[in-house]
Design brief:
Number of strands: 7
Distance between the termini: 14 Å
Strand order of the largest sheet: 4-3-2-1-5
Largest sheet: 5 strands, antiparallel
Shape: globular
Order of helices and strands: HEEEEEHEHE
Structural class: alpha+beta
C-alpha cells in the first residue's frame, strides 16, 4: 500500500504553478536584495520587507511576473485552488480561523487532528 498512490504532488514555488495561478490582490514578490532573493509584501507604494522585530524595509517596486508572486495568507486558498482544483482541504486549527471558505465553495474542509508532539510526527513514505 502506497501512502501517495493516486496523489499528484506539486510545489507552489514552481514557476509553472505560479504562472498558472489566478491573479490575487494581496501577495508577496520574490525580489533580489543584498545578493539574495527575498519575499517582500507588495503594496502600491513599494515592497515591504520585514527586517526583524518592528523593522520594515521599503524596497522600490521593480518589474516582476507571476512567476515571482506568492499569495498572502488571506488569498492563499483561492490562488492555490485556481491551479489544483482540490476537492478536500485538511486544515489545522490556525488555518480554520482565517480560511475564507467562500473562495472554494466546492471544497470539503476537514479539521486536522491536533498533533501534541509534532516533532515526532513522521511517515516512512518518502516523496
Amino acid at each position: 500500500m502506497s501512502l501517495l498512490e493516486g496523489v499528484t504532488v506539486v510545489r507552489s514555488s514552481d514557476p509553472a504553478f505560479r504562472a498558472a495561478a489566478c491573479d490575487i490582490p494581496d501577495f508577496y514578490v520574490d525580489v533580489p536584495y543584498e545578493n539574495e532573493i527575498v519575499r517582500a509584501r507588495f503594496t502600491p507604494g513599494g515592497l515591504l520587507l520585514h527586517g526583524g522585530g518592528d523593522s520594515v524595509i521599503t524596497l522600490p517596486v521593480s518589474p516582476f511576473t507571476k512567476e515571482h508572486v506568492s499569495p498572502a495568507r488571506d488569498t492563499r486558498l483561492r490562488w492555490m485552488n485556481s491551479v489544483i482544483h482540490c476537492t478536500h482541504y485538511v486544515a489545522g486549527a490556525g488555518e480554520q480561523e482565517y480560511l475564507n471558505k467562500q473562495d472554494a465553495p466546492d471544497v470539503s474542509f476537514v479539521n486536522r487532528d491536533a498533533i501534541e508532539r509534532s516533532d515526532e510526527a513522521w511517515t516512512e513514505e518518502s516523496l
